[in-house]
Design brief:
The protein is an alpha+beta fold. It has helices at residues 2-22, 26-94, 199-202, 301-304; strands spanning 97-101, 104-108, 115-130, 140-154, 158-165, 172-183, 186-194, 223-233, 238-245, 265-272, 286-298, 312-313, 319-321, 328-344, 347-362, 365-381, 407-418, 436-447, 452-464, 476-486. It is elongated, with a radius of gyration of 46 Å.
Length: 487
Amino acid sequence: MKLKWWLLIVIAGAQVCAAAEETNSPNAEIEALKKEVQALERKIERLEQQQAAQQNVATQPVESARVEELDQKVKILERQRESDQEQAEAAAKTAPKFSADANGFKISSADTNFVIQLKGLVQLDSRTFFEDGGIKDNDGFILRRARPILQGTVYRDFDFAFVPDFGGSTVQILDAYINYRFRPELQLEIGKFKSPVGLEALESDTVTAFNERSMVTDLVPNRDLGVELHGDLFSGSLNYALGIFDGAPDFSGSVPNLDYDDNKALAARVFLQPFRTTDISTLQGLGFGVGGSWEVDRSSSSASGTGLTPGYTTDGQQKFFTYNSGVYADGEHWRISPQAYYYWKSFGILGEYVYSDLGVTKGNASANLNNTAWEVTGSWILTGENASYTGFTPARPFDPHKNQWGAWQLVARYSTVDIDKKAFPIFSNPGTSASAAHEWAVGVNWFLNKNLRVNASFSHTQFVDGNSGAVTKQPENVLFTRVQLAF
């Protein structure tokens, strides 16, 4: 640019000198030279503009190609990101799921068709007896239940459970079954599980009101080997169960069933909750039904050993009735148990009656023994949670830092069992076995959270007859405590 201006000045100067020499009118010539200089400036400006335009035209394709290249790279990166997201979503759909919470530890397939869950129950009890006539070794701490619980599902519709129990003096397999859920209304269960007769017996061990169930459970079958068809109809308003089992005497109590013959037992139960799905809140917690069983017992004294044992037990798990040696089951054995419960807000009440007709024989003597039992249990949750047959979860789990103290529940119960008078003296000793027992109990339960619970209760049992028996010659008074961990 500077070179052009210098050339312009030199040319202009030369013209000026030449003009000065040839004319005597310098002013006119100067004006002419100015015009020529201005014309040259305009030419130079046009040349510069043309040069700049040519440079822009030359660089435009380069910049356009660069923008196109960057845009292509952005599109490639976006597609890679979308592909990574799709792969992550596909992996998440097939990856197994793990969870650990108040309900236990669970592993499941992504579609939940395969599930395995580890749960557990530990109950540490204490029993303290008062005025027990000098009976030794009945006070103390007891590991009442210690159960690792393995349950799950395979191929969506097949549930299973395996429950050993390490509590007490022996190891038992309490539950071991497979349940096929074709539909909620139609299910088939095979293995060892609770027989569908008693209402309180079917209640979960984790939610019972007291440490021990009432004496009503002495007359109903407990767990047994068998096959059961069951289901829930009308959104759970009607539950039914019908099964075939090995069968056992009605005094099986808390020990394994004793099956002395090849005959099987039929057991059935129907339970209604007619207002469960209605808007009548005061009646939604009402349930009632009937359970029963029938079998033909055939055994021999050699098979039964020391007779029909273990007999009936109290709250403190002491025997208050046993059969004499040489007594065995002989003939039809049937039970019927009308039952009901009602839960409304924090209040709950459960009642049950059992009638048992059992044929027995000793030597040439035989009889049909009609034994009966009934009980009523009431509960009230002081902290306001809603009560139910399957338990409840504290609304404010124990946390002193937040001024939360869990849930508190008051419980009370009355139960009684009557032995047929025909049992004495041939089939049972009236001096050591009671012909009836009447029990009342009160207690308080503290639920720290869904998994931890502390119980304290007192039970009093009065006996009829059995005046010379170590257990039955005086009333049983026992204080219970329990610390329970269940998940």
